[in-house]
Amino acid sequence: MESYIGSPLTSNAVRVLMLGGGELARGLVGAFQNLGLEVHVVDRYEGSPAQQVAHFSYTADIDDEKAVLDLVEHIKPAYVVPEIEGVADEALHALHDDSAVTVVPTARACELTSDRKKLREVAESLGLPTTAYKVVETFDALKEAVNELGLPCIIKPDVATSGRGHVLVKDEDQLKDAWDNVRRGKKNSWVVAERFVDFDYEVIIMAVRSIDPETGKLATWFSEPIGYEHARGNLVDCWQPKTMSQRAFENARSVAARISNELGGRGIFAVELFVAGDDIYFSSVTPRPSDKAMLTEATQRFSQYELHARAILGLPIDITLVSPGASSLLHATEEIDEVTYSGVEEALQVAETDVRLFGKPSAYPGRRMGLIMATADDVSEARDRAAIAASKITISAAPRLVPEPELTSEKELSPDDVESSEWAITVRA
Prior knowledge:
By secondary structure, the chain is an alpha+beta fold. Helix content is 28%, strand content 28%.
């Protein structure tokens, strides 16, 4: 932990560089800023949600080793925090060897959790309960794997991206479409075919690793379980707490503790699990805030973003649940260049609801564009409120409602003003 926290935009600032600038990163930016850190965000495209609120923003290919290392050399951050999978692993390992920079949680953790094959190997080495699977590189090999594993079967991409891109195949006629969809846009040729577990439900446990102020040593805290549902490969709703038997909850925390301890470092780990009775099956883990835990802004005393920031800095952790709650995701249904939302007023008329619009510059079918959160005396009522509020909001390409401002608080710097011409920077004055 830093012995001090300086002031942003001064020579004594404690800087954090975030690799990726999506909606989860935006929540994390605010958490870091509340603790006095100077926040820098880099993403592949300009105007990402987190770039809109960071102190400094950059546009670069975060899967490019040189681009990442050049940015680190220019910024000199104390912490480098990957917000997404698919960043330059070589750069993270190079930074890990630099004592002046902390890669969150570790370079090894980021590499393992971005590669589904490597992550599964780690889980097996720990003796975690997992489902049978096959790694395949051709469509013919996929057919053979599914024949061996049986139907239904889940086809997953190479990169472990928090449940996105998964396709449940119920008969052989669906295999070709699943193969094409899962491989689309992926950097590796292989996919994972996984035996479908006849589970009762899925949960996510947030494991938070930080310094225990009473002992001065690393310790792990666990959130109340979060339930969630997918439809057509997209996350649609989440709720907390998800009711579990005491035995299942203990087993879930045990699995979460073992995998997060193995990955190491400090921060929040989103551990995804299948539950069948009291039995737990490990599915995946993400060493950063999760889309499934965005509702913690409403349900917990401290959100997942605040807990991640605190843990990175080695600060005390409080994971208290203050209210049952639920969330419903807003997805686009069409290609839109300039997005307009309507119905927000009506949505907020539903009791105990809140709205988050992600501020993404464009939309495509299935893209997550916002979130409804709701609280209530019980989960069932919270889920109803979130669903009703979400139904009130429409995402469309309606004409711009307000003129573009003539003045801006942003100052664009030319490549001559920085040390590298491979990326652009925007400074928020």
